[in-house]
Amino acid sequence: MKTAFHTGVSGLVAYQHMLDTIGNNIANINTVGFKRQSVSFEDLLYVRMNTKSAPDLLKGVGTKAAYTQLHADQGRVTYTGDGLDFTIAGDGFFQVDHDGRREFTRDGEFSIGLRSRRPYLTTSDGAYVLSMQGRRIELKEEFEERYVITDGQISTEQVPTGRYDLSELLSEIGIFRFVNPHALEPVSSTRYTATEASGAAARDNRGVCELVQGYREQSNTVLSDEMEAMIRAQRAYQASARVVSTADQLEEIVNSLRN
Predict the structure, then answer these.
(1) Environment class of 22 (CB within 10 Å of its CB; exposed 0-12, middle 13-18, buried 19+)
(2) Beta strand pairing status for 111-115 and 210-213?
(3) Domain residue ranges of the chain, discontinuous segments joined by +
(4) How far apart are the first and last CA of the chain?
(5) Which residues on adjacent β-strands are paired with residue 256?
(6) CA distances from 151 to 129, 157, 159, 176 (A)
(7) Helix ranges, the chain (H)
(8) 186-202: per-residue pLDDT in tens?
């Protein structure tokens, strides 16, 4: 009975992890650049049953959540018209500098950050967006010509407008690709780091991916698929709980017989 009890508990733990993952996917259905995840399971060690009639008879001892896989397929793209919004058509990623660490993201909802009064292209939380050469992208301020009257003389001068030139960003923002992007490791928000399984980041010099300005990539979470997975996980969780309850009842019966 103890084996049945622990088998049921392993199912509870595994399917709780699956429900947590599904809940995270649904919670981020409106998060720009979010990539959904799914849980894969493995059966646990098989042991020989304690019986003389069938010495080769084996029984399993439960399941476990083996790993969480990232699904890097492209999400729905929406038009915003904002010059600071970018999306990648293809499997590439933006590279950002977050506190000295190189991370990768599909979230192209960028901002302008000032460092020592110099404007840089950044993410919404202040990480620097990097070029294909891995350098920070500094923006150029726009100027306009205004007439000035000095001592009765009319002249012109260049006056800053408070706006920045965004026309060159398409050629400056770097795009990087991975051999296996599904093996990237989530680290924070919608950013990821390379792993041994994903391979090192490679610059998209061959133009496999296309950078589009004025568009934003939404989450690739499909609500109907997540609801279906949640129902399956809930049913499996309930069944595992019933196994634990039944094993406990049988254990009580055995103990009462001994008394």
Answers:
(1) buried
(2) unpaired
(3) 2-72+222-258, 77-217
(4) 18
(5) none
(6) 47, 15, 20, 57
(7) 2-27, 169-172, 223-258
(8) 998 799 999 999 999 99
